[in-house]
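User: I'm curious whether this sequence folds into something compact or stays loose and floppy. Could you predict its structure so I can see for myself?
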Amino acid sequence: MIRNVYIDTSVFGGYFDKEFDYETKRFFDKIFKEKITIIVSETCVAELQGSPANVKDFFEALPKEIVKYVELTDEVRNLADKYIEAQVVGKTNATDCRHIAFATVSNVDVLVSWNFKHIVNLERKRGYNSINLQEGYKTIEIVAPMEVFDYENE
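Assistant: Here's the prediction. I'll summarize afterward.
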């Protein structure tokens, strides 16, 4: 059972993107209906500042009782640096690494993203999880919004 999810910035933008809106809206409907906790990082909030007004408004309208904010800590920063040192992604993708590190350190059930190049990618997932295990963390599920829930039985 999913109790909490880390959502990166791409999912909030996906709510208004023609390519991703249908699956993103289904995902958020399920989150709201089941009152699943959304973990939002300081990094995500900072990235959203540059988003279009409709994305920021949607984010700010999230039900406060299901949102948990997490701040950047040395633990998150260090784990993100380990991903880069292991060349899971390059230095220019430090923000993506922080999303993974936030989710890992927060012990979420799943990280949800539309970023297929640097996050939701089999090779990257293996790399992130390899470092997680080496550093004493559990592996993390990393998926796109349509993979989180079973929509067949609705």
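Summary: The mean pLDDT is 95. The two ends are 16 Å apart (CA to CA).
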